[in-house]
Amino acid sequence: MKIGLVLSGGGARGIAHLGVLKGLLEQGFAFDQIAGTSAGAIVGALFANGYTPDEILKIIETTPFYRHIRPAFTRMGLLRLDKAEDLYRTYLPHDRFEALQIPMHVVATDLNEGVLTVFETGELVRPILASCCLPGIFEPYLINKRQYVDGAVLNNMPVEVVEPKVDFIVGVHCNPFTTQKPITSVKGVLERSLILAVRSKTKERLAKCNLLIEPPELSRFDVFDWRRARDLFRIGYQHTQSIKSELSKTLDSVL
């Protein structure tokens, strides 16, 4: 039986994917296909390349990603990600989907056509960066003369991408919805509004997952909490550990 893994976007919260992955691997899960949006695309690609969850966490903790983000001197965004291409190629030196150990599918939003684009062949690094271009923050990413922004704009949980290719889908969603105290800042308004918009489009896709993992504690973190990487990793891992019996039964049923 083939198992697919779908990883949502969620900014820094996406680091929790690594903790969940570590727990799943310890339980004996193995994956035949991976699909990811934004942070999920980064985690999925590095994992598909052969890095362990702990190794990816170390990369995140020791790499000064902010040094590879530069101001955008246009009216389309505050920052640019193109300088990060060389950084990602140090960890994905082949820069090809075909070089990955597990088939990977990255989604981004074609801003010109208003449609979702699935990248799964050819160059790898630029589609990953395109999938992470949060509108208004990052300038749209240009690939083959097309402008792309964050895949979460149209699909933050790309279940459909792997659905025809696998028999069982494990979904990891890092944006749990909880009622929060009143918002008191512009940043809070923007983040909450984004989560609400994305969540409304995600409910049906969450229901398509045969196994959905969504650590509720992640609601305490925001999408910019990059400095709390180890805490986010721990929450993902501990939540997965807390459902070990359910995971064991699930694995027995699919193998």
Automatic annotation (TrEMBL):
- Looking at the record, the residues that make up the PNPLA domain are 5-163
Q: Which CDD domains match?
A: Pat_PNPLA6_PNPLA7_NTE1_like
The record, for Gene3D superfamilies, names: Cytosolic phospholipase A2 catalytic domain
Keywords of this protein's UniProt record, alphabetized? Answer: Hydrolase, Lipid degradation, Lipid metabolism
Q: Does the keyword Transmembrane apply?
A: no
**Motif interval(s): DGA/G:** 150-152
Offer one Pfam family short name for this entry: Patatin
Q: Which InterPro entries match?
A: Acyl_Trfase/lysoPLipase, NTE, PNPLA_dom
* Keyword Lipid metabolism attached: yes
Q: Name one GO molecular function term.
A: hydrolase activity
The record's active-site residues are S38, D150
What Gene Ontology terms for biological process does this UniProt record contain? lipid catabolic process
Top-level taxon of the source organism: Bacteria
Motif GXSXG mapped to chain: 36-40
Record motif GXGXXG, residues: 9-14
Q: Which PANTHER family match?
A: NEUROPATHY TARGET ESTERASE SWS, NEUROPATHY TARGET ESTERASE/SWISS CHEESE D.MELANOGASTER
Q: What is this protein called?
A: Patatin
Q: Which organism is it from?
A: Larkinella terrae
